[in-house]
């Protein structure tokens, strides 16, 4: 069997001595969109941040392509093809989109000579970026800021994308406008996506598999069609 792109084995993470994830096991398979849903405080963001090296783990293993990662840190993960779209968009309001992208390319370590092409590629995936490219991020709508945040995460041409609640504050129609281009890219390239979402109904439309978390543990694994009717979803909350 092909190794999981990202996997945890007995992962323990917490804050101030209190574990949020306590022996957490999960696997993101190659080429899938895995949707992670669950109550507030279940530990979804903590998992994403830990996988990307922003929160240190206390115990357990994180494996990339089946290989145990001794050191988990954002730069190494970016170089290995993993990218994070953080919760709350993480854009700098005073920077223009152009400046944000320049900084992103520098941070991702993209060689200077490859930068124009890389930018063109991101804009081919997210053409809307062009329409507000010279504007300061702080003047953009929530949906536009989210496009910037996703565009920045795509600069490294990741094969694995971690997305933390990209739909927050967006109308359902905007959610689909935002995520359909990513789903198209994912289906074309075989990218793997771990998507944390509260907007379950919309997220299920672009997911291949769903896991439901409660208090730091997985309480259910399902296919989107298994949760298609509202009653089944309500049982989980
Ligand atoms: N930096 C932090 N310091 C202390 N406690 C934290 C920190 N970040 C998260 N927590 C706590 O860890 C628990 C899990 O939070 P986390 O944000 O991972 O959950 P979540 O499932 O993503 O929920 P939400 O949907 O509300 O973001 C919560 O009890 C939260 O209060």
From TrEMBL:
Show the PROSITE patterns listed in the entry. ABC_TRANSPORTER_2
Residues covered by the ABC transporter domain: 6-236
**What's this protein's family per the entry?**
Belongs to the ABC transporter superfamily.
InterPro entries per UniProt: AAA+_ATPase, ABC_transporter-like_ATP-bd, BCAA_Transport_ATP-bd_LivF, P-loop_NTPase
Protein source organism:
Allopusillimonas soli
One of its GO biological process terms is: L-amino acid transport
Which is an annotated GO molecular function term of this record? ATP hydrolysis activity
Q: Which CDD domains match?
A: ABC_TM1139_LivF_branched (cd03224)
According to UniProt, the name of this protein is ABC transporter ATP-binding protein
Arranged from A to Z, the UniProt key words for this protein are: Amino-acid transport, ATP-binding, Cell membrane, Membrane, Nucleotide-binding, Transport
